[in-house]
């Protein structure tokens, strides 16, 4: 222990300073959310909580009359995306993990290859398609394109092939269970841990999605939270207190979710990054 | 196919007459996987592949969206030549690469030693600390970029206040830190500082993600390597330099590739920080923002599509270069 003390102290100090830098923006987001604009604009700016949070939410709601609706919409879109992803990705993952079929490997490589396509490449035509389909300002314009992602299929395949023995599926098949029923009654109950991880990743990703809604939502009532926050910018006097209150409201659900599940979430995100 | 099937299914069916249900199930076994993977392909065809082909098609046309799809006019490679010689596009590519390097290199230079500290010196508190560094990665980039615009503000921003109070710190008559820190507030919206501001926010958001990647790779390095080194009298920094870093090579390749791909597509942070305008003299406009503005502000979808394909080619080229540089020495 004595031999390592000095380097340990240095490590603790550096890592500690770093975590202050990491957390400071969140801290000031909460502090500013509880102060009036003039108090934030004073020199030096406030470093401790004030009592203006409710007031700031009021200002926020004046500028964004549909803010609660926007939150509800974000939640709805993220939830539907998550449910669709869990269903479709686990079905496909099950097929790749448990079936031998012609073209399996080619299909799997194709699906993985789509992860290499940058999202901005489809931005313009997607906007055009949505307006042709008359899906502009419709939640389905956000969740249908995201309903089944390559990463989810990959995660599900990995999990199913390691967690479920092939014999179990065979046994169910011998008993005359049809293929979908095997999936529904045998596979689904066994993959709930993977559902948790993929669900978290999908939910957070969709909750934070900015580029998607930016091109398909132009009615303020149909804005998701990131779009709504962005709309506070750039019109005359910027209401910093209200912006920080809104940002806090957008971020707190994720922070709570993260604190409860960080291990699972991090493991899920880095799955596939480390071999062996 | 049949050999595969007989390997999986017991061969008893031959002798017995199968019921209708059994026959249906047998055909289900054949068709089910195709049905199960089809949702992906349907969605990808409509919202992935078709947009891709359409945008390629669009990039060779001039098009006034208001005039309808019939009004497309074939212009050959004009959109591409225009984009490549366009000053604003060149500026945006320069900005993108500048920010990608200024945010990307420190990400790895900080993340690797940080992961090493966490790996060697933190036991029980490790998960908490990792969580703190990881938190920026999962938060809304829009929300947090807005918070950063207040922190970076010229007159009341917390960052300026810290900098200038360090710069103006006096001991007797002299200001010992004035050479390092500014003594007056910096206007981060001035063109010469905008990119620095954006790069810092990007660095802040992704350094924890890279740390987690390196940390998970470090956990797979065999412990006996370190034990042998300790027996041989290697110091901790020597162990870091001669064991950890070389063993991390494959992960470095992976993480650097992700950083290249991600940073060249930067959109949200610069978009919010510059209020969607690109900032004064477009100093903070990235290539993806240039594409967005060309399409949705200026209404020139053909040119914007060409921009997106040029950017895609650039990303592919740099990823390939990284592969040549780092990937082959495995």
- What structural class do you assign from the helix and strand content of chain A? mainly alpha
Helix content of chain A: over 70%
Low-confidence stretches of chain A: none
* Secondary-structure class of chain B: mainly alpha
Number of helices of chain B: 14
- CA distance, first residue to last residue of chain A: 32 Å
Overall mean pLDDT of chain B:
84
Features of the shown structure:
heterodimer, A: 276 residues, mainly alpha, 0% strand, B: 330 residues, 2 strands, 1% strand, flat
Q: Can you characterise this structure?
A:
The complex is a heterodimer of chains A (276) and B (330). By secondary structure, chain A is mainly alpha-helical. Helix content of chain A is 71%, strand content 0%. Chain A has helices at residues 5-33, 37-40, 53-63, 67-98, 104-113, 123-132, 140-143, 150-163, 166-174, 179-190, 192-208, 211-216, 225-231, 240-270. In chain B, helix 4 (87-121) packs parallel to helix 8, helix 4 (87-121) crosses helix 13 and helix 13 (287-297) runs antiparallel to helix 14. Chain B has a two-stranded antiparallel ribbon with strand order 1-2. Chain B starts with a helix and ends with a helix. Chain B is mainly α. Chain B has 14 helices and 2 strands, in the order ααββαααααααααααα. Chain B has helices spanning 2-8, 20-58, 78-85, 87-121, 126-138, 141-151, 158-167, 191-218, 223-231, 236-247, 249-264, 268-273, 287-297, 301-327; strands at 61-62, 73-74. The longest helix of chain B is centred in the first third of the chain and has 39 residues, at 20-58. Classes of the chains: A mainly alpha (276), B mainly alpha (330). Chains A and B meet through helix 1, helix 4, helix 5, helix 6 and helix 9 of A and helix 1, helix 2, helix 4, helix 5 and helix 6 of B.
């Amino acid at each position: 222990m004595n031999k390592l003390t000095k380097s340990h102290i240095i490590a603790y100090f550096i890592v500690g300073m770093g975590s202050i830098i990491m957390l400071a923006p969140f801290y000031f987001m909460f502090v500013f959310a509880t102060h009036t604009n003039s108090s934030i604009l004073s020199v030096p700016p406030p470093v401790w909580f004030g009592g203006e949070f409710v007031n700031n939410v009021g200002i926020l709601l004046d500028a964004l009359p549909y803010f609660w609706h926007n939150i509800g919409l974000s939640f709805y879109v993220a939830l539907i995306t998550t449910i669709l992803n869990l269903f479709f990705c686990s079905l496909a993952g099950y097929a790749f993990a448990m079936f031998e079929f012609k073209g399996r490997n080619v299909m799997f490589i194709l699906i993985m290859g789509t992860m290499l396509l940058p999202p901005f490449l489809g931005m313009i035509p997607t906007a055009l398609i949505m307006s042709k389909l008359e899906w502009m300002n419709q939640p389905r314009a956000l969740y249908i394109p995201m309903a089944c992602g390559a990463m989810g299929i990959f995660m599900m395949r990995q999990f199913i092939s390691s967690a479920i023995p092939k014999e179990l599926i065979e046994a169910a098949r011998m008993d005359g269970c049809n293929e979908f029923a095997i999936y529904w009654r045998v596979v689904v109950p066994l993959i709930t841990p993977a559902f948790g991880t993929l669900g978290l990743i999908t939910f957070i990703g969709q909750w934070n999605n900015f580029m998607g809604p930016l091109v398909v939502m132009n009615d303020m009532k149909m804005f998701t939270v990131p779009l709504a926050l962005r709309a506070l910018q750039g019109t005359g006097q910027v209401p910093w207190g209200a912006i920080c209150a809104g940002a806090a409201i957008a971020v707190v659900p994720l922070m709570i979710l993260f604190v409860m599940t960080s291990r699972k979430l991090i493991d899920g995100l880095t799955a596939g990054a480390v071999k062996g | 196919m049949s050999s595969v099937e007989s390997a999986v299914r017991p061969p008893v069916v031959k002798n017995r007459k199968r019921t209708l249900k059994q026959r249906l199930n047998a055909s289900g076994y054949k068709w089910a996987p195709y049905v199960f993977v089809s949702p992906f392909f349907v969605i990808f065809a409509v919202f992935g592949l078709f947009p891709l082909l359409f945008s390629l098609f669009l990039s060779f046309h001039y098009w006034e969206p208001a005039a309808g799809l019939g009004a497309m006019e074939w212009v050959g490679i004009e959109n591409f030549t225009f984009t490549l010689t366009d000053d604003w596009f060149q500026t945006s590519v320069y900005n993108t690469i500048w920010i990608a390097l200024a945010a990307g290199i420190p990400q790895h230079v900080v993340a690797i030693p940080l992961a090493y500290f966490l790996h060697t010196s933190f036991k029980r508190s490790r998960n908490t600390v990792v969580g703190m560094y990881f938190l920026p990665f999962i938060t809304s980039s829009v929300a947090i970029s807005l918070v950063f615009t207040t922190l970076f503000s010229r007159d009341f921003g917390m960052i300026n206040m810290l900098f200038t109070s360090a710069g103006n710190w006096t001991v007797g008559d002299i200001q010992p830190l004035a050479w390092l820190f500014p003594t007056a507030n910096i206007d981060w919206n001035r063109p010469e500082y905008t990119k620095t501001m954006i790069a810092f926010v990007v660095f802040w958001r992704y350094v924890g993600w890279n740390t987690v990647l390196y940390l998970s790779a470090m956990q797979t390095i065999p412990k006996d390597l370190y034990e042998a080194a300790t027996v041989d009298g290697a110091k901790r920094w020597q162990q870091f330099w001669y064991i950890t870093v070389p063993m991390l090579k494959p992960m470095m390749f992976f993480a650097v590739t992700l950083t290249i791909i991600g940073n060249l597509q930067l959109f949200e942070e610069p978009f919010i920080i510059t209020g969607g305008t690109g900032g004064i003299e477009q100093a903070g406009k990235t290539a993806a923002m240039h594409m967005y503005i060309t399409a949705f502000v200026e209404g020139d979808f053909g040119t914007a599509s060409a921009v997106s394909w040029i950017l895609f080619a650039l990303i592919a080229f740099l990823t390939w270069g990284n592969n040549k540089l780092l990937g082959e020495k495995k």
